[in-house]
Amino acid sequence: MSQRDMNQCAGIDYKKAESELFRVITEINKLYKDEEKFLVNLEKSQRNWEAQLELDLDLKFPRAGDPMYYGSIFPMCYSGYKTRLTLQRIAFLKEWLIGSREGEVCSGSIMNEYYIKNAKE
């Protein structure tokens, strides 16, 4: 596999992660549709995460504007790091889709898994 192929694959992997992130957010919005304050906070959280993502990418690759600085592998590395951070965000947000178990007293806005299961049926 050539470097160009690896760079393209890394870009495709990021697009898949990005699509999954949007799918998870859409599902959360549907499930929590009656929780207006939560949804406002989810939107703020997502905007802040997107800003933090860019800052983290800038921190990791401060010379991204000069991609040759990092060599021909840069697109793969950049996309790979962005994918990793996006997958972490997805895992975090999926808590609101999985739900909390009976007895979890610090679940905050996360619905009980029983209600989530019934809402999806």
Automatic annotation (TrEMBL):
In terms of Gene3D superfamilies, this protein maps to: 1.20.1270.180
Q: State the protein's name.
A: Putative periplasmic protein
The source's domain of life comes to Bacteria
Which Pfam families is this protein grouped with?
LprI (PF07007)
User: Locate the Lysozyme inhibitor LprI-like N-terminal domain: which residues?
Assistant: 2-93
